[in-house]
Amino acid sequence: MMADVLLTFFAGILGGALRVGVPFLFVSLGECLTEKSGRINLGLEGVLVLSAMAAFGGAYLSGSAWTGVLAGAAAGALLAALHGVLCSLPRVNDVATGIALMLLGTGLAFYLGKPLIQPQAPQIPALALGQWSDNASVRAALQVNALLPVGLAIAGLLWWGFARTRLGLLVRMAGDSANATRALGYSVPGIRLAATAAGGAIAGLGGASLTLFYPGSWNEGISSGQGLIAVALVIFARWSPLRCIGAAALFGGAGAIGPALQSIGIGWGYHLFNTVPYVLTLLILVITCKPGSVAAGSPGELSSVK
Hints:
- By secondary structure, the chain is mostly helical.
- Helix content is 69%, strand content 2%.
- The chain is globular, with a radius of gyration of 19 Å.
């Protein structure tokens, strides 16, 4: 009996890491790409919410979940590109612009998404990886978002691109030394704009995961701050796309502790355990962001963002 309870609990944690962790994965990969170019995008919360609404609306209007996914990626890219354009202007602060874009993105999503709160849209199919098990909890936990393999592939491509390709080297160079990039004749604003827009498109896939898989509906509180948590995730992952996979799984599993306890009949402290991802975020920022020091792996230009 105790073995079944423990199996149900840990299956719930695993399911949370696989379901809740997918949006974290995409948003952290998008922010990792953006920050590698030397720009920080605190507007990713707005990108996530707007892309979640756009994905749901696209799927609802077209009748295709994959059309919705493309709509979410496009919405994320457009809002992030606006951030990139504004930050390229003289005397514009990246952080302040990101906060303004976060408010714009969430405001647009709430306004345009009002008619989408009640309807149902087609959902992204699940990959059933637990058919080998006789335990219903394990089978439910291993109902994997079909976008998860896409996220893993993007993480691998980003890691390979940063390490092995000329384009990846240019992104890293723009993030480490804008002066060296200019001296070689490359446009730092152009590189950062492209990286920011691409990062927004990747984050937009996370928004699509929220409304088209889990929880699978559109409402104004859909993101729960995951776009902002992504900044801490990237710091925790030391700006490594592959480490973003583990960080996203950790935060996804942490967010699933409350529901996992509820699944085995423990209701006490449910809402308290739901705060675990936010506590982790605070701990990461306190431990890694010390005055007068630079976190290991941080792009050099981030310490001088204006």
